[in-house]
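[retry 2/3] Site-specific integrase: previous attempt timed out, resubmitting with same input.
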Amino acid sequence: MIIINSINISATINNMNIMQRKDDRFEAKITINGIRKSFYGNTKVEVKNKVKSYLQKINNGFKETKKIKLNDYVEYWLSNYKFGTIEGSSYTRLYSVYQHQIKPYIGNKYICDITSQDIDVFIKEFANPPLKSGKKPLALSGLKKIIQLLNPCFETAIKEKIIFNNPCSDIKLPTESYLIVKTKEQFSLTDKQLEQFKKEAVSKYKTIDEYKGRDFLVLIIMLNLGLRTGEVLALTWDDFNFKNNIVKINKTIQTKVALDSQCKKQSLALKNSTKTVAGERYLKLNENTLHYIQELKQYDIRNNINSDYFCCCKNNTRQCARNLQRSLDRLTRNIKSDEHITLHTLRHTFGSTLLRNGVGIEVVSKLLGHANITITYNKYIHVIKEQEAIAMNMVKVC
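[retry 2/3] Site-specific integrase: success.
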């Protein structure tokens, strides 16, 4: 065993004792600052290269520390590098990935011992879990979320000189054919379902008084504007400019993590900005949308509703997403659909309808408030491919 204080790499490697183990692999041991380190390889050359790489990093400032479990480091990283720097809803999702996919399965491994092979096996077992593994199979999006957490976490560990290499850096996610849970295309309403939606909504808001029928009008307007749920909940009447027939989208309602980096306390909060910078936008109100907004105003007059909130409930307080979804469930109860119709379905239907009617993707992206066109393209790729096929069928060059 060689104890190293001031490192002379060439001398260390030349004087190093490399032993052959019973499993035919080769092993060398060195001790740095009282911490023993073993290096293994199928050949002596492989062992020497590993030791050389290690010693070079020691000379560059890397300090060998006590072993840290992945669980401990991820919790440290989340609390110190992510909490308070990203949106509450984003942090909650990130913490959930840690709790359900990472902590129970590889959390007890020492971070310095985790290899690319460990991560590769770990990911593949979530893509296609072995029997009795206890793992719930994930779609490609779920696998991406795991890597999106681990990759920057390992990068931070490298900067803090806790590990040498990022075991996620060369990981390739499985293809769709390997996955048990296939990626679902975003669902949007068909023309027939849209007709039923309108018929049901008009029928209900005209026959249900008090605040209960109000949601059905809000849902029609939401469908016509393509708003995010948080955006429609945050709307106030002073966001509307009826002189120029436009509505200003500049805030959202979101679930905000309050005071607790372990997500044990949550509350709804108004955020005075949208999800992205591009989300702040002005939307033109067409005649159809204006008609339903006027209907909503008349509904409020008839039922003595006087609220600053565009989407309100009893006692003129702001409506919540859960209740709005319940109203949508009532509205769509008689609409035949293989998929559950959600509030986001209305937004996706808005975008899909525009694309199918020939509106350019740049315009659709701006209307939806996406940060960039790539996001729009990825979310509506199935619609774009559908339109490309239609276009090719129309081509008759000769």
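[retry 2/3] Site-specific integrase: The first strand starts at residue 2 and ends at 4.
[retry 2/3] clearing retry counter.
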